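Q: what sequence does this backbone want?
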């Protein structure tokens, strides 16, 4: 885990950006001893969101839309794999 302040300092991100991601349900933050931390399992998502925001200039709402579309794409790909497996059973 890394504190929010340390992440912001190391990655040139703003505290408002991190908190906005949390408010929109895109990442989960933890609080321990009155310090806010980014759990290890959220770091890869946070890095991707930081790239979207600071390099591609996508706002928080746009990041949320992108994530929803990517999740939907993953679901559809899994459904397709499941259907292909079912079809193989009937072809045999």
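A:
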């Amino acid at each position: 885990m890394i504190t929010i302040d340390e992440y912001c300092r190391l990655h040139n991100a703003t505290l408002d950006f991190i908190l906005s991601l949390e408010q929109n349900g895109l990442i989960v933050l933890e609080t321990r001893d009155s310090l806010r931390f980014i759990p290890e399992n959220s770091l890869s998502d946070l890095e991707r969101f930081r790239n979207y925001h600071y390099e591609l200039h996508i706002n928080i709402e746009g990041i949320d839309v992108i994530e929803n579309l990517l999740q939907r794409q993953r679901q559809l790909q899994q459904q397709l794999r499941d259907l292909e497996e079912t079809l193989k059973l009937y072809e045999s």
